[in-house]
Design goal:
Length: 339
Amino acid sequence: MPLPADNSTLTEINGVDRAAVLLLCMGEKAAAGVMAQLAPNELLRVAHAMSRAGSVKKHDVHAIVDQFLEASTQHGGANAAPRAYLERSLAAALGEGIASNVLDGIYGDRIRPKLARLQWVSVTRLADVLSREHHRMQALLLAYLPADLGGQLLRALPESQQEALLLETAQLKRVDRELLADLEVIADRCLAGLSAESTDVPGTRLAAQIMGHVPDEQKRLMDALRAHDASLAESVEASMYGFDILAYQAPEVIDLAVAEVPTELWAVALKGTDARMRQVVRERMSRLQEDALTQAMQRLGAMSAARVEAARDEIMTLLRTRAREADMLLRLADGEVLE
C-alpha cells in the first residue's frame, strides 16, 4: 500500500516502507550497497515500496532516520574496523597468507556474496556454464551456492551426473586459494552475461563451423570477411582452428605438436577431453613423455574451464605457426584440408 499521507503517524508505516524511505534518503550509491545484500524476495519488496512511495512529511522522515540510528547504536556499539584496515594490520603482523585465512574466518568467505548474486541468473544458464567445468569445479560451485539454488541447479543437470556431483560435493574438505580464484572467475562469467543471457548467440563459432563445410570457398569468404572486419575475421579463423581438430590431423602434424608443446601445457589442455583426443596425443609420445603427462595431469588436479581454454588456444596458435613454417596441411575435419 502507498505510504501514509500527510496526516499519517510513524506507527502506520510498516517495516518495508520504512526501509524504502531510508534507501531513498541515502542516495543511489549507498542504497545500491544495501540492496546488494538483500535476498531476491526482500529486494523486490523494498524496490516495489520505493517505486510507489508518495510524499512523506519531514517529521516522519526524521523519525524513521532517528529510529534507525538509535537501533544501530544499540546493536552495533563502536564502529567496526573495515576489512581493508584489518587486512593491512594483520598482514603486517602475521604475513599475507595467515592474515587472509584469519580474515576469512572473521568475515566468512569473500566469495559468498558474489555467488549469492547468482540467484538472479537463470538456472538454465548456470547449468550450461557448470556443464563445461571440471567435476571438481562443479562440486565447488554447488557447495558455495545458497542451498535452494544448489538444489535447483542439481535438478537441472542430467540424472547421470547428479549422483556423482553430489558425492563429489559431500567429499569436499579443504579448498586452496587458487581454486577459489578460479571459482570467482566462473561467477564473474555468469554475472557478466546476466543482462543479455537470452540474446547471446555464438556467431563467431557458428561462422567458423559454416566455413569448415565449404572448403572450396574458404579463402574467398575469409578474404571478403577480412576486408570488411579484420578483427572479426581473425576471431572466426581462430575458431576454425579449435583444439578439437587435433583428432583429424596426420601423424606428422601431431609429432610436430608433441615436439613443440611443453608437457605441462598438454596436461592443462587435455583436461576434460574425451579418450579419443587423449589417445591421439599419447600415442605419438615417447614412454617417458607419456609418463610425465600422466603425472602432470594428476598433480594439477581440477581447474577452471577458462585456464584450460587458454592452454588449448596457446597450443593451436603455436601449431598453426609451426605447420605454416613446415609447409604442413591442417585438416578442419575428416577429409577437409586447409592450404
